[in-house]
Amino acid sequence: MENQDQHAKVPADLMQRYEDNPEQADLEIFGRKTGGNRRGFLKGAGLATMGALIGTAIPFHRNMPSGFIPEALAQSAMEIDGKDGLSVLNDRPVNAETPPHLLNDDVTPTSRHFVRNNGIPPENTSADGWSLTIDGLVGKPMELSIADLKSKFEVVTERLVIECGGNGRAAFDPPAKGNQWTLGAVACSEWTGVRLRDVLQAAGVKDNVVYTAHVGADSHLSGKEGKLAISRGVPIDKAMNPHNLIAFGMNGADLHPMNGAPLRLVVPGWPGSCSQKWLKRVWLRDQVHDGPKMTGKAYRVPGYPVEAGQKVPKSDFEIIQAMPVKSLITTPETRTKITGRSLKVAGHAWAGDDAVARVDLSIDFGATWIQTDLASPANPYAWQRFGAEVSFPMAGYYEVWARATDTQGRAQPFGIAWNPKGYLNNSMHRVSVYVS
Ligand SMILES: Nc1nc2c(c(=O)[nH]1)N[C@H]1C(S)=C(S)[C@@H](COP(=O)(O)O)O[C@H]1N2
Ligand SMILES: [Mo]
Q1: Ligand 1 proximity of 272 Cβ (cutoff 6 Å)
Q2: What is the pLDDT of residues 236-258, one digit of tens each?
Protein backbone atom coordinates (compact mmCIF):
# COMPACT_ATOMS: atom_id res chain seq x y z
CA MET A 1 0.00 0.00 0.00
CA GLU A 2 1.41 3.40 -0.91
CA ASN A 3 1.74 5.89 1.89
CA GLN A 4 1.00 9.40 0.70
CA ASP A 5 2.68 11.04 3.68
CA GLN A 6 6.37 10.49 3.65
CA HIS A 7 7.51 10.24 7.24
CA ALA A 8 11.23 10.47 6.85
CA LYS A 9 13.41 10.15 9.95
CA VAL A 10 14.66 13.46 11.24
CA PRO A 11 18.29 13.69 10.14
CA ALA A 12 20.95 14.54 12.68
CA ASP A 13 22.14 17.56 10.71
CA LEU A 14 18.66 19.06 10.38
CA MET A 15 19.72 22.44 11.76
CA GLN A 16 22.70 22.74 9.42
CA ARG A 17 20.66 21.72 6.39
CA TYR A 18 18.14 24.45 7.07
CA GLU A 19 20.93 26.98 7.59
CA ASP A 20 22.41 26.10 4.19
CA ASN A 21 19.32 25.91 2.04
CA PRO A 22 15.88 25.90 3.63
CA GLU A 23 14.02 25.11 0.43
CA GLN A 24 16.22 22.16 -0.42
CA ALA A 25 16.02 20.90 3.15
CA ASP A 26 12.25 21.03 3.07
CA LEU A 27 12.24 19.15 -0.20
CA GLU A 28 14.55 16.40 1.06
CA ILE A 29 12.97 15.97 4.45
CA PHE A 30 9.33 16.48 3.66
CA GLY A 31 9.38 15.50 0.00
CA ARG A 32 7.77 18.71 -1.09
CA LYS A 33 9.07 21.90 -2.60
CA THR A 34 7.79 25.00 -0.91
CA GLY A 35 6.53 27.98 -2.85
CA GLY A 36 9.27 30.23 -4.08
CA ASN A 37 8.17 33.74 -3.29
CA ARG A 38 8.09 33.88 0.44
CA ARG A 39 11.29 32.03 1.02
CA GLY A 40 13.60 35.03 1.04
CA PHE A 41 11.22 36.90 3.25
CA LEU A 42 10.81 34.03 5.70
CA LYS A 43 14.50 33.49 5.99
CA GLY A 44 14.86 36.76 7.77
CA ALA A 45 11.48 36.72 9.46
CA GLY A 46 11.51 37.01 13.20
CA LEU A 47 9.56 34.71 15.43
CA ALA A 48 6.90 37.34 16.04
CA THR A 49 6.29 37.77 12.31
CA MET A 50 6.06 34.04 11.82
CA GLY A 51 3.67 33.70 14.73
CA ALA A 52 1.54 36.50 13.33
CA LEU A 53 1.37 34.80 9.94
CA ILE A 54 0.45 31.47 11.47
CA GLY A 55 -2.08 33.15 13.74
CA THR A 56 -0.88 31.79 17.06
CA ALA A 57 2.22 31.35 19.19
CA ILE A 58 4.68 28.53 18.45
CA PRO A 59 5.34 26.84 21.85
CA PHE A 60 8.39 24.88 20.67
CA HIS A 61 9.91 27.67 18.65
CA ARG A 62 13.31 27.06 20.27
CA ASN A 63 13.56 23.78 18.38
CA MET A 64 12.98 25.38 15.00
CA PRO A 65 16.09 25.56 12.83
CA SER A 66 16.75 29.03 11.46
CA GLY A 67 15.31 29.33 7.98
CA PHE A 68 12.79 26.57 8.73
CA ILE A 69 9.62 26.95 6.69
CA PRO A 70 6.57 26.14 8.81
CA GLU A 71 4.28 23.76 6.98
CA ALA A 72 1.32 26.05 7.57
CA LEU A 73 3.03 28.79 5.59
CA ALA A 74 4.58 26.61 2.92
CA GLN A 75 1.14 25.77 1.66
CA SER A 76 0.16 29.38 1.08
CA ALA A 77 3.54 30.70 0.15
CA MET A 78 2.39 32.59 -2.88
CA GLU A 79 -0.85 34.01 -4.11
CA ILE A 80 -1.97 34.03 -7.73
CA ASP A 81 -4.36 36.80 -8.72
CA GLY A 82 -7.90 35.47 -9.04
CA LYS A 83 -7.04 32.13 -7.44
CA ASP A 84 -8.07 31.15 -3.95
CA GLY A 85 -6.52 28.56 -1.66
CA LEU A 86 -4.28 26.88 -4.24
CA SER A 87 -0.96 25.32 -3.15
CA VAL A 88 1.81 26.67 -5.30
CA LEU A 89 4.37 24.02 -6.22
CA ASN A 90 6.56 26.21 -8.34
CA ASP A 91 6.64 29.87 -9.33
CA ARG A 92 8.68 29.69 -12.54
CA PRO A 93 6.83 28.35 -14.38
CA VAL A 94 3.74 28.76 -12.22
CA ASN A 95 2.23 25.48 -11.08
CA ALA A 96 -0.46 25.34 -8.46
CA GLU A 97 -2.95 22.71 -7.32
CA THR A 98 -6.16 22.80 -5.33
CA PRO A 99 -6.66 20.95 -2.05
CA PRO A 100 -9.39 18.30 -2.47
CA HIS A 101 -11.84 19.85 0.01
CA LEU A 102 -11.86 23.03 -2.11
CA LEU A 103 -12.97 21.02 -5.14
CA ASN A 104 -16.35 20.11 -3.68
CA ASP A 105 -18.42 22.09 -6.21
CA ASP A 106 -19.94 20.25 -9.17
CA VAL A 107 -18.58 23.03 -11.34
CA THR A 108 -15.10 24.08 -10.28
CA PRO A 109 -14.99 27.85 -9.80
CA THR A 110 -12.32 29.57 -11.86
CA SER A 111 -10.63 30.64 -8.63
CA ARG A 112 -10.02 26.98 -7.83
CA HIS A 113 -9.03 25.65 -11.23
CA PHE A 114 -5.42 24.44 -10.97
CA VAL A 115 -2.63 26.02 -13.01
CA ARG A 116 -0.05 24.09 -14.95
CA ASN A 117 2.34 26.18 -17.01
CA ASN A 118 5.32 24.79 -18.90
CA GLY A 119 6.61 28.18 -19.95
CA ILE A 120 5.92 31.86 -19.53
CA PRO A 121 2.35 32.97 -20.33
CA PRO A 122 1.92 35.67 -22.96
CA GLU A 123 1.67 39.23 -21.67
CA ASN A 124 -1.17 40.17 -23.97
CA THR A 125 -4.20 37.98 -23.30
CA SER A 126 -6.79 40.36 -24.72
CA ALA A 127 -9.43 38.94 -27.04
CA ASP A 128 -9.16 41.98 -29.33
CA GLY A 129 -6.94 41.20 -32.26
CA TRP A 130 -6.42 37.57 -31.19
CA SER A 131 -6.37 35.24 -34.16
CA LEU A 132 -6.45 31.50 -34.58
CA THR A 133 -4.87 29.83 -37.60
CA ILE A 134 -6.11 26.48 -38.92
CA ASP A 135 -3.65 25.15 -41.45
CA GLY A 136 -1.58 22.20 -42.61
CA LEU A 137 -3.48 19.45 -44.44
CA VAL A 138 -6.76 21.32 -44.85
CA GLY A 139 -8.71 22.23 -47.97
CA LYS A 140 -8.85 25.88 -47.03
CA PRO A 141 -6.54 27.36 -44.37
CA MET A 142 -8.35 29.78 -42.08
CA GLU A 143 -7.53 32.72 -39.90
CA LEU A 144 -10.29 33.33 -37.36
CA SER A 145 -10.86 36.07 -34.80
CA ILE A 146 -12.75 35.24 -31.63
CA ALA A 147 -15.72 37.15 -33.08
CA ASP A 148 -15.52 34.90 -36.18
CA LEU A 149 -15.60 31.79 -34.00
CA LYS A 150 -18.66 33.10 -32.16
CA SER A 151 -20.57 34.08 -35.31
CA LYS A 152 -19.65 31.27 -37.73
CA PHE A 153 -19.98 28.24 -35.46
CA GLU A 154 -22.45 26.89 -32.95
CA VAL A 155 -21.50 28.03 -29.45
CA VAL A 156 -21.82 25.34 -26.78
CA THR A 157 -21.31 25.15 -23.02
CA GLU A 158 -20.15 21.94 -21.33
CA ARG A 159 -18.66 20.80 -18.04
CA LEU A 160 -15.36 19.16 -18.90
CA VAL A 161 -12.70 17.58 -16.71
CA ILE A 162 -9.10 18.60 -17.25
CA GLU A 163 -6.57 16.53 -15.31
CA CYS A 164 -2.82 16.82 -15.60
CA GLY A 165 -1.15 13.57 -16.68
CA GLY A 166 1.18 13.92 -13.70
CA ASN A 167 -1.52 14.42 -11.06
CA GLY A 168 -0.60 12.15 -8.12
CA ARG A 169 3.11 12.07 -8.96
CA ALA A 170 4.10 13.06 -5.40
CA ALA A 171 3.22 9.56 -4.20
CA PHE A 172 5.69 7.81 -6.51
CA ASP A 173 8.40 5.79 -4.78
CA PRO A 174 11.09 5.98 -6.01
CA PRO A 175 10.12 9.54 -6.82
CA ALA A 176 9.65 10.73 -10.36
CA LYS A 177 11.02 14.09 -11.45
CA GLY A 178 8.58 16.83 -12.29
CA ASN A 179 5.93 18.76 -10.43
CA GLN A 180 5.08 16.95 -7.23
CA TRP A 181 1.33 17.10 -7.69
CA THR A 182 -0.58 15.44 -4.87
CA LEU A 183 -4.29 15.23 -5.74
CA GLY A 184 -5.45 18.59 -6.97
CA ALA A 185 -4.25 18.97 -10.58
CA VAL A 186 -7.79 18.30 -11.73
CA ALA A 187 -10.88 20.42 -12.26
CA CYS A 188 -14.27 20.39 -13.93
CA SER A 189 -15.15 23.89 -15.04
CA GLU A 190 -17.96 24.89 -17.36
CA TRP A 191 -16.41 25.81 -20.69
CA THR A 192 -18.02 27.82 -23.48
CA GLY A 193 -16.73 27.74 -27.00
CA VAL A 194 -17.09 26.12 -30.40
CA ARG A 195 -16.46 22.50 -31.28
CA LEU A 196 -12.96 21.81 -32.60
CA ARG A 197 -14.63 19.35 -34.99
CA ASP A 198 -16.85 22.03 -36.55
CA VAL A 199 -13.91 24.33 -37.17
CA LEU A 200 -11.75 21.56 -38.66
CA GLN A 201 -14.62 20.45 -40.89
CA ALA A 202 -15.08 24.02 -42.13
CA ALA A 203 -11.41 24.09 -43.07
CA GLY A 204 -11.73 20.67 -44.73
CA VAL A 205 -9.76 17.78 -43.23
CA LYS A 206 -7.69 16.02 -45.93
CA ASP A 207 -7.75 12.23 -46.11
CA ASN A 208 -4.12 11.81 -45.14
CA VAL A 209 -4.41 13.66 -41.80
CA VAL A 210 -3.06 11.60 -38.90
CA TYR A 211 -2.61 14.03 -36.04
CA THR A 212 -3.28 17.57 -34.85
CA ALA A 213 -0.54 19.90 -33.64
CA HIS A 214 -1.43 22.65 -31.14
CA VAL A 215 0.45 25.91 -30.78
CA GLY A 216 0.01 28.48 -28.01
CA ALA A 217 1.30 32.00 -27.45
CA ASP A 218 3.36 31.28 -24.33
CA SER A 219 7.13 31.35 -24.52
CA HIS A 220 9.83 28.91 -23.53
CA LEU A 221 11.46 29.36 -20.11
CA SER A 222 14.75 30.12 -21.84
CA GLY A 223 13.11 33.14 -23.47
CA LYS A 224 14.42 31.99 -26.86
CA GLU A 225 12.48 33.62 -29.67
CA GLY A 226 10.21 31.18 -31.49
CA LYS A 227 10.97 28.30 -29.11
CA LEU A 228 7.76 26.68 -27.85
CA ALA A 229 7.31 25.57 -24.25
CA ILE A 230 4.93 22.80 -25.23
CA SER A 231 3.11 21.78 -28.40
CA ARG A 232 1.09 18.61 -28.29
CA GLY A 233 -1.56 17.06 -30.49
CA VAL A 234 -4.01 14.18 -30.70
CA PRO A 235 -4.91 11.57 -33.32
CA ILE A 236 -7.45 12.99 -35.76
CA ASP A 237 -10.15 10.57 -34.51
CA LYS A 238 -9.90 12.00 -31.03
CA ALA A 239 -9.75 15.54 -32.42
CA MET A 240 -13.12 14.99 -34.15
CA ASN A 241 -14.86 14.05 -30.88
CA PRO A 242 -17.69 16.60 -30.52
CA HIS A 243 -16.80 17.36 -26.89
CA ASN A 244 -13.48 19.00 -27.68
CA LEU A 245 -13.92 22.75 -27.47
CA ILE A 246 -12.06 25.79 -28.64
CA ALA A 247 -13.08 27.73 -25.56
CA PHE A 248 -13.35 31.46 -24.95
CA GLY A 249 -15.54 31.22 -21.87
CA MET A 250 -14.96 29.69 -18.44
CA ASN A 251 -17.74 29.51 -15.85
CA GLY A 252 -19.75 32.26 -17.52
CA ALA A 253 -16.88 34.72 -17.85
CA ASP A 254 -13.69 35.14 -19.86
CA LEU A 255 -10.91 32.63 -19.35
CA HIS A 256 -8.53 33.31 -16.48
CA PRO A 257 -5.14 34.50 -17.82
CA MET A 258 -3.41 31.50 -16.20
CA ASN A 259 -5.93 29.11 -17.74
CA GLY A 260 -5.27 30.23 -21.29
CA ALA A 261 -7.07 33.54 -21.91
CA PRO A 262 -8.42 34.52 -24.32
CA LEU A 263 -8.66 31.17 -26.16
CA ARG A 264 -7.76 27.56 -25.41
CA LEU A 265 -8.45 24.02 -26.39
CA VAL A 266 -10.27 21.75 -23.99
CA VAL A 267 -9.68 18.12 -24.96
CA PRO A 268 -11.30 16.30 -22.05
CA GLY A 269 -10.51 12.74 -21.02
CA TRP A 270 -6.89 12.86 -22.14
CA PRO A 271 -3.89 14.34 -20.30
CA GLY A 272 -4.36 18.06 -19.65
CA SER A 273 -1.36 18.76 -21.85
CA CYS A 274 -3.53 18.09 -24.94
CA SER A 275 -5.63 21.15 -23.98
CA GLN A 276 -3.40 23.88 -25.38
CA LYS A 277 -3.79 27.25 -23.68
CA TRP A 278 -3.41 30.67 -25.34
CA LEU A 279 -4.29 28.86 -28.56
CA LYS A 280 -2.93 30.43 -31.77
CA ARG A 281 -2.81 27.60 -34.23
CA VAL A 282 -4.11 24.13 -34.98
CA TRP A 283 -2.04 22.48 -37.63
CA LEU A 284 -3.09 19.19 -39.27
CA ARG A 285 -0.29 16.74 -40.05
CA ASP A 286 0.21 13.42 -41.81
CA GLN A 287 2.37 12.07 -38.99
CA VAL A 288 2.30 11.88 -35.21
CA HIS A 289 3.13 15.39 -34.06
CA ASP A 290 6.70 15.85 -32.86
CA GLY A 291 6.51 19.20 -31.04
CA PRO A 292 8.03 19.87 -27.59
CA LYS A 293 6.72 17.38 -24.98
CA MET A 294 5.37 15.05 -27.68
CA THR A 295 8.60 13.09 -28.11
CA GLY A 296 11.03 11.22 -25.86
CA LYS A 297 9.44 10.14 -22.59
CA ALA A 298 7.15 13.15 -22.15
CA TYR A 299 3.53 12.17 -21.50
CA ARG A 300 4.43 8.58 -22.22
CA VAL A 301 4.43 5.39 -20.16
CA PRO A 302 6.02 1.99 -20.83
CA GLY A 303 3.83 -0.23 -22.99
CA TYR A 304 3.97 -2.98 -20.34
CA PRO A 305 3.89 -3.12 -16.52
CA VAL A 306 7.22 -2.29 -14.90
CA GLU A 307 8.63 -2.60 -11.40
CA ALA A 308 9.13 0.48 -9.27
CA GLY A 309 12.46 2.00 -10.21
CA GLN A 310 12.92 -0.12 -13.33
CA LYS A 311 14.85 1.41 -16.23
CA VAL A 312 12.90 1.31 -19.47
CA PRO A 313 14.35 1.97 -22.92
CA LYS A 314 12.93 5.04 -24.61
CA SER A 315 11.59 3.00 -27.52
CA ASP A 316 9.26 1.09 -25.16
CA PHE A 317 7.34 4.21 -24.16
CA GLU A 318 3.89 4.88 -25.62
CA ILE A 319 1.95 8.13 -25.81
CA ILE A 320 -0.69 8.39 -23.10
CA GLN A 321 -4.20 8.50 -24.51
CA ALA A 322 -7.27 8.37 -22.23
CA MET A 323 -6.76 9.04 -18.54
CA PRO A 324 -7.76 6.19 -16.19
CA VAL A 325 -10.81 6.05 -13.90
CA LYS A 326 -10.38 8.07 -10.72
CA SER A 327 -12.23 9.62 -7.80
CA LEU A 328 -11.63 12.33 -5.25
CA ILE A 329 -13.24 12.68 -1.82
CA THR A 330 -14.00 16.37 -1.48
CA THR A 331 -15.92 16.17 1.78
CA PRO A 332 -14.92 15.69 4.52
CA GLU A 333 -11.50 17.26 4.46
CA THR A 334 -8.88 14.76 5.57
CA ARG A 335 -8.09 14.70 9.33
CA THR A 336 -11.64 15.67 10.18
CA LYS A 337 -12.73 15.20 13.78
CA ILE A 338 -16.36 14.30 14.45
CA THR A 339 -18.30 13.62 17.62
CA GLY A 340 -21.29 11.73 16.21
CA ARG A 341 -21.19 8.26 14.66
CA SER A 342 -22.23 9.13 11.15
CA LEU A 343 -20.80 11.33 8.42
CA LYS A 344 -21.70 12.41 4.90
CA VAL A 345 -18.91 11.49 2.49
CA ALA A 346 -18.98 12.89 -1.05
CA GLY A 347 -16.83 13.73 -4.01
CA HIS A 348 -16.44 13.32 -7.75
CA ALA A 349 -15.39 10.55 -10.11
CA TRP A 350 -14.37 10.61 -13.78
CA ALA A 351 -13.02 8.10 -16.27
CA GLY A 352 -11.13 9.41 -19.29
CA ASP A 353 -13.15 8.77 -22.47
CA ASP A 354 -15.49 6.54 -20.49
CA ALA A 355 -18.11 7.12 -17.77
CA VAL A 356 -18.09 6.02 -14.16
CA ALA A 357 -20.40 3.09 -13.33
CA ARG A 358 -20.06 3.06 -9.54
CA VAL A 359 -18.12 4.43 -6.62
CA ASP A 360 -17.66 2.42 -3.43
CA LEU A 361 -16.36 3.48 -0.04
CA SER A 362 -14.55 1.47 2.61
CA ILE A 363 -14.00 2.45 6.25
CA ASP A 364 -12.22 -0.79 7.19
CA PHE A 365 -9.12 -0.61 4.98
CA GLY A 366 -10.77 -2.29 2.06
CA ALA A 367 -12.30 -5.35 3.76
CA THR A 368 -15.88 -4.31 2.98
CA TRP A 369 -17.35 -1.73 0.66
CA ILE A 370 -20.40 0.52 0.64
CA GLN A 371 -21.89 1.48 -2.70
CA THR A 372 -22.53 5.23 -2.97
CA ASP A 373 -25.23 7.16 -4.79
CA LEU A 374 -23.71 8.20 -8.08
CA ALA A 375 -25.09 10.96 -10.31
CA SER A 376 -24.99 10.76 -14.10
CA PRO A 377 -22.63 13.25 -15.69
CA ALA A 378 -24.17 16.63 -16.66
CA ASN A 379 -22.74 15.86 -20.12
CA PRO A 380 -20.11 13.40 -21.35
CA TYR A 381 -16.68 14.21 -19.84
CA ALA A 382 -18.14 15.97 -16.78
CA TRP A 383 -17.22 14.46 -13.47
CA GLN A 384 -19.91 12.62 -11.53
CA ARG A 385 -20.97 13.35 -7.97
CA PHE A 386 -20.95 10.47 -5.50
CA GLY A 387 -22.08 10.45 -1.91
CA ALA A 388 -23.05 8.21 0.97
CA GLU A 389 -23.83 8.48 4.65
CA VAL A 390 -21.17 6.48 6.48
CA SER A 391 -21.55 5.08 10.02
CA PHE A 392 -18.66 4.34 12.31
CA PRO A 393 -19.16 1.54 14.88
CA MET A 394 -17.11 3.10 17.70
CA ALA A 395 -14.76 5.94 18.54
CA GLY A 396 -11.30 5.95 17.01
CA TYR A 397 -9.24 6.53 13.90
CA TYR A 398 -10.71 5.65 10.52
CA GLU A 399 -9.78 6.07 6.92
CA VAL A 400 -12.40 6.44 4.23
CA TRP A 401 -11.25 5.04 0.92
CA ALA A 402 -13.00 5.68 -2.37
CA ARG A 403 -12.86 3.38 -5.37
CA ALA A 404 -14.45 4.24 -8.70
CA THR A 405 -15.20 1.68 -11.42
CA ASP A 406 -15.77 2.66 -15.04
CA THR A 407 -18.42 1.25 -17.36
CA GLN A 408 -15.90 -1.25 -18.72
CA GLY A 409 -15.36 -2.69 -15.24
CA ARG A 410 -11.95 -1.14 -14.65
CA ALA A 411 -11.55 -0.08 -11.01
CA GLN A 412 -9.04 2.12 -9.23
CA PRO A 413 -6.11 0.16 -7.77
CA PHE A 414 -4.84 0.28 -4.18
CA GLY A 415 -1.29 1.07 -5.18
CA ILE A 416 0.47 2.93 -7.94
CA ALA A 417 1.28 1.40 -11.31
CA TRP A 418 4.76 2.93 -11.12
CA ASN A 419 6.27 4.36 -14.28
CA PRO A 420 9.48 6.36 -14.78
CA LYS A 421 7.93 9.77 -15.42
CA GLY A 422 5.25 9.65 -12.75
CA TYR A 423 2.06 9.67 -14.80
CA LEU A 424 -1.45 8.27 -14.39
CA ASN A 425 -1.54 7.65 -10.67
CA ASN A 426 -5.17 6.70 -10.14
CA SER A 427 -4.72 4.86 -6.87
CA MET A 428 -7.58 5.31 -4.43
CA HIS A 429 -7.96 8.54 -2.50
CA ARG A 430 -8.26 8.20 1.25
CA VAL A 431 -9.10 10.65 4.00
CA SER A 432 -8.73 10.18 7.73
CA VAL A 433 -11.56 10.70 10.20
CA TYR A 434 -11.24 10.88 13.98
CA VAL A 435 -14.40 9.77 15.74
CA SER A 436 -14.75 10.65 19.41
N1 LIG B 1 0.15 26.85 -24.20
C2 LIG B 1 0.17 25.98 -23.18
N3 LIG B 1 -0.86 25.13 -23.03
C4 LIG B 1 -0.89 24.26 -22.01
C5 LIG B 1 0.19 24.17 -21.11
C6 LIG B 1 1.27 25.08 -21.27
O7 LIG B 1 2.24 25.10 -20.51
N8 LIG B 1 1.23 25.97 -22.32
N9 LIG B 1 0.16 23.22 -20.11
C10 LIG B 1 -0.67 22.05 -20.38
C11 LIG B 1 -0.81 21.14 -19.26
S12 LIG B 1 0.50 20.10 -18.98
C13 LIG B 1 -1.98 21.03 -18.54
S14 LIG B 1 -2.17 19.87 -17.35
C15 LIG B 1 -3.10 21.95 -18.80
C16 LIG B 1 -3.49 22.65 -17.52
O17 LIG B 1 -4.52 23.57 -17.70
P18 LIG B 1 -4.76 24.71 -16.62
O19 LIG B 1 -3.46 25.38 -16.33
O20 LIG B 1 -5.80 25.60 -17.19
O21 LIG B 1 -5.26 24.01 -15.37
O22 LIG B 1 -2.80 22.94 -19.77
C23 LIG B 1 -2.05 22.44 -20.87
N24 LIG B 1 -1.96 23.46 -21.88
MO1 LIG C 1 -0.14 18.54 -17.36
Answers
A1: yes
A2: 999 999 999 999 999 999 999 99
